[in-house]
Amino acid sequence: MCLFSRQSLFRPATVRCTIANVFILLILMSCTAMHSEHQYSYTTVPNDPLHTRIYTLDNGLTVYMSPHKDEPRIYTSIAVRAGSKNDPAETTGLAHYLEHMLFKGTDSIGSLDYDKEKVELQKIVDLYEEYRSTDDPDKRADIYRQIDSTSNFAAEFTIPNEYDKLLSSIGARGTNAYTWVEQTVYLNDIPSNQLEKWLTIEAERFRNPIMRLFHTELETVYEEKNMTMDSDSRKIWENLYAGLFRKHTYGTQTTIGEAEHLKNPSIKNVIDYYRAWYVPNNMAICIAGDFDPDEAIKLIDEKFSKLKPSPVPRFFPPKEDPIENPVITKVKGPEAEELVIGFRFTGAGTPDIDFLTLIDKILHNQTAGLIDLNLNQDQKVLDAASMVVEMKDYSTHILSAKPREGQSLDEVKTHLLEQIENVKKGNFPDWLLEAVINDLKIEELRTLETNRGRTETFVDAFVLGADWQSVVEKRERLSRITKEEISAFARKHYGTNYVAIYKQHGKDAETPKIQKPPITPLKVNRNKTSVFAENILARKTEEIDPVFLDFERDIQSENIIDGVPLFSVKNNENDLFSLYYVFDIGNNHTKKIDLALDYLSYLGTSALTPAEFNQEMYKIGASFSAYTADDHLYLKLSGLQEHFPAALHMLEKLLCDARPNVEALEKLKAGILKERADDKLSKRKILFEAMHHYGRYGASSPFTNVLDNDELKKITPEELLAEIDTLMRYRHRVLYYGPAAPAKLSSELRELEHLKRELVTIPEIEPFIEIEQQKNRVYVVDYDMTQAEMLMLSRDMRYDPKQVPLITLFNEYYGGGMSSVVFQELREAKALAYSVFSVYRIPKDKDEHHYIFSYIGTQADKLPEALSGINQLLENLPESPDLFASAKNGIHRKIRTERLTRTKILFTREEAQKLGLNHDIRKDIYENTENLDFEDIAAFHRQRFTDKKYTLLVLGKKENLDMETLGKFGKVSNLSLEEIFGY
């Protein structure tokens, strides 16, 4: 389960349909689904591109539907209008904790004998009440021992993760949930032929969730809390909201909860919270995908009618006092410095939101906004951005940026606020408003392309309590707002009424972590199945035939010129296009290419300045970007097809006629040097990139294959433009997804200047050599953090496509998801980590090796136990026939209902080519896993995992790490940041 914040810029509205009003009936098409046993009325809105139906069932449950037959799958979200703002002040974090408990099952799901189990669970409830009311440390320790003992006895009647196994068995993917201030939302992406089973499972899940496995899950939440204590972004966010909201729970409480409250939990309060808020008249089912809405609503009503409505507690938002003067808060942490400014506005359903949407885009649209051009393009700061966070009671407009070398956070603040002043004065071009509306149209089209995007829009609408018509009409409404009105709004609402967070680099005041309580590992009944699950799994479902790509059939190919083929897929949905120039050259070939392409984004042509170039691109709804990898790169042009010729011409001019700019390059170099210093402060960059590459290659790796700082400082504009010129003289291929016919497109491309020159073959280079491990090695990087994070790597055989089906099944069973044995053992049974996984990684290139790749994020004092736990699983594979069957069924059902569409078709071919394949590898997986049994993956585990030598990479505060335990695993070497970054 994950915790993250989301922003919503939409507010829906309702037009209620009645049979008596014939006129409305005609406008809204069919507003009633007729069935012999029931009649379902629904709301719809004219000109709604999602063709949304909104139902309200007899028990108050709201249902949003959007049929979309892109693939035989349905994206689902079940939203509850209850989040951290509704937590009792004395037990914060309750909404988030309940989210975790909704994965533990009911009296039917996950229980072997609930009559016996509930007796023990009630004892645990009572013990926790006694625990939280006791101050004496010795008595508390004694009570916790009783909790631990009773929990172990109760676990004998429990089947951990049965909900996850059920969802996996029906072919669900993306099973997860999140909690934020207003809402808790439960996510699944299911095969369309499994809708009835999914509804049966979900209706049961919400009927009577049982608070089982409470103390191990609480330890997981402790881990999550400790992770947030290590997060500088968490410090920024919490302090920003504390400053903006002095009275409202947006600022007085945090979603994950106070440490003191987590140490003194109450199961009784969690149950009471569920009973108060998790009622159908406070919930919505949001689905988009391949289904018949008339049949779907009948099923939803049948399954969820068992949930009984009741009055929902009212939340009375306190009125915040005006912010008269800037509120400045300084926080410290190990990561890079940053400034964040927040302004407070009224909430959802108010005119403020429309103005904020436009002002946000005028400031920052990633191409031609005031922040984009005046700050990022001119390189006055690093990574400047703007975003709006819309909430029910209040909303915020947030500006952020990082300082350049030698720049103070005060200077950064001045630069950001100057852009607000430009809006106040109307210092932005008249055409920008129209371009913003065009940009919003493109965003809407992209949202419509995915079922997930559709359901997220529904969730936002429900949570914010708005009407759907307002969502549908938003662009039209925004288009009527004038430049003068925007400037007047800005003058009225933006002044000294802001909160600024100065995130400084340094050691924060000591933050107490939540200590590890003594937990006896639980017995995991992975070989048992509840009666409920047996009945679900026994139901026969008419299967959907898989559809595999045939590259020759599904991709049209043309030769633009000799050595430059065009591969295209027709877009029959909308007017959007994406064009890619793909080169088999990357950072391993030349250290300068990434810098050269980065530099290109700051340049103009002989006809247009850099700012003018970006403005012209934004006017026509086009965007250009570059992506570089170790052994390939691509240049991407995208936008509206009607402006394709103009966008293509502009890109060609930039590639062939870019004008050098000495000042821009010097600023770029300085910015890169600052970003390099910042990267050395980033946990994720240190562990998953620098340390990971060091573990695979040693000191010389693709990651360290960059210009050193001295080389960077000496680079000239001429060298970088020569690099671009050389790139465009190499043979490449063009990928296209859009409405244009291939022949016409090929003809247009043939006229490009760079294709009229003689193109050459890309030269071969010596590959970087992966280290062959002869013994265990331990590398430690010291970092000021509460947790410890660990990667374990072991190189194995080179890529073998014949092994892919077996590896896929093994990973699904072993360590790839929440129902896997690794997750069950280390998180569910032993509570040793919040995040843990272990897989046999398949390389992306035929010349690379497979790797055993394991990760654990845990408290530093748990590291010895966590290391021991993962070692046991690396040496011994637990057997569970039920879990194996679930993993196998899940793979087949996912493949049966997966449809690769749009640009995925083109890039699936690219991935296959790199692996030496000429077909869709999913076909091999589907056909060959059918005949595999548990002994096949057990034999694979014995052959590939046991008695292996590993590289252990540990990131943590050295003084908190058990170096003696690490030394028993292998020789410990302490690495400096300079060693792993190469500069």
TrEMBL record:
Residues 268-438, 763-883 form the Peptidase M16 C-terminal domain. One of its GO terms (molecular function) is metal ion binding. Keywords: Hydrolase, Metal-binding, Metalloprotease, Protease, Zinc. The keyword Protease applies. SUPFAM superfamilies: LuxS/MPP-like metallohydrolase. The keyword Endoplasmic reticulum does not apply. Pfam families: Peptidase_M16, Peptidase_M16_C. Residues 70-113, 161-253, 598-693 form the Peptidase M16 N-terminal domain. It comes from the Bacteria. Gene3D superfamilies: Metalloenzyme, LuxS/M16 peptidase-like. InterPro entries: Metalloenz_LuxS/M16, Pept_M16_N, Pept_M16_Zn_BS, Peptidase_M16, Peptidase_M16_C. GO terms for biological process: proteolysis. Its cofactor is Zn(2+). Belongs to the peptidase M16 family. This is Peptidase M16. It comes from Prosthecochloris marina. The lineage of its organism: Bacteria, Pseudomonadati, Chlorobiota, Chlorobiia, Chlorobiales.
